[in-house]
Amino acid sequence: LREAAMGNASTSASGEDVIILGCVAYSEEISTIWEGMRQYFLRAGVPFDFVMFTSYDRQMEALVNGHIDIAWNGPLAHVRLHKRTKGKCISMGMRDCDRDFSTHLIVPKDSPIQSISDLRGKRIATGAYDSPQAYLMPLQAIQDSPDGEAILKSLTIVRFDRDLGKHGDTAAGELEVLRALSEGEVEAGFVSDVMWQRALAAGDVNQKKKPQMRAVPGVVPAFDHCQFDAMPTLSEKKRLAFANALFAMSMADPDQKRVMKSEGIRDRWMPHREEGYQAMHRALASEEPAPFPGAVDTEEKHRFAALELRPTVGFPNTKFVRACT
User: Fold this and answer.
1) What pLDDT, on a 0 to 100 scale, did the predictor assign at position 282?
2) In whole angstroms, what is the distance from residue 54 CA to residue 23 CA?
3) Backbone φ and ψ of 127, nearest 5°
4) Span 222-243, pLDDT tens digits
5) Which region holds residue 79: left if phi is over 0, alpha if psi is between -120 and 50, else beta?
């Protein structure tokens, strides 16, 4: 991987000077976004190239084994890397839209559910087991609530394991959550604010002859999403070159603005912060820091009254939905 990317990065830079970044290809749009970023870095005088991966787990192994320098990680991959390196990994920045990411508990408008305590004994739809916004963070919010363990043990979870490995980036599972709610298959479900706002804007809910739903406020605390991560062995030269160029990007420049907007940035890149990942750290407390980890909850062993799995059937119809807009 490294040799192939270095060969394309810059004819004037030695191979070892090139910064190789990994990103997950959850849509055909990703190559366009990161080609724009590559051109920006090269024009800024930073030898740079990128490699795309089919999953965050594969990307993490490439990072840990030195095949890439930096990984563009989601929150699950970020915390797993933190555990793998015993907190020694280097975090290098995030988008402004990655801070205080929101997820909602969605219920029918006439539902009596007003809080987490009202979920006791209910059928709840979730996204894939590796989706931070549609599975891990919502269930951790329930776990953290008063009598949370007992509430979890009373639930029937209907889990839509779509596009596994991409950590919910395609939002395919969340689309299934909204469908299950609209068809009365479940009594409540979890989706990101991005998907909820899109459903409202598109008129898919709460319009005449459309399903009537509402978001229950204050159920899932906000958390932080994507992050640039590197191993502690990354040279200071590469670290500074990447950070200086990244944080110099500006919406005042039309070309840079186009690239930044394509990545969902509202105004600017932001420095790293770790406090937005504390709930994810709790969610993964019992997970071993090993390559290619599986689901926290399986058919054989889970925390619920029942777990009904809805895996992908046939060829997956991956849908591109950016985590931030």
Assistant:
1) 97
2) 9
3) -80, -165
4) 999 999 999 999 999 999 999 9
5) alpha
Residue 194 main-chain phi, psi, to 5 deg = -60, -50
List beta partners, residue 22: 51, 71
Report residue 307: phi and psi, to 5°.
Answer: -130, 115
pTM as predicted = 0.91
**Pairing label, strands 269-270, 123-126:** unpaired
Half-sphere exposure of 92 (CA within 13 A, CB side): 26
DSSP label at 137?
Answer: H
pLDDT digits (tens, 9 = 90+) for 4-19: 555 555 445 557 899 9
Residues of the chain with pLDDT > 70: what percent? 91
Instruction: From 69, 72, 77, select the one nearest 33 (Cα to Cα).
Output: 72
How would DSSP label each residue in 154-219?
A: H-EEEE---STTSTTTT-HHHHHHHHHHHTTS-SEEEEEHHHHHHHHHHTSSSSTTS--EEEETTS
Q: Tokens 């793998």 belong to which residue? A: 84
Read off the tokens for 138. Answer: 């919502």
Q: How far apart (Å, rounded) are the C-alpha atoms in residues 227 and 132?
A: 14
Rounded to the nearest 5 degrees, what angle is found at the Cα of 196, between the Cα atoms of 193 and 199? 150
DSSP conformation letters of 221-266: --B---EEEE-TTS-HHHHHHHHHHHHH--TTSHHHHHHHHHTT-S
What single-letter amino acid sits at 267? D
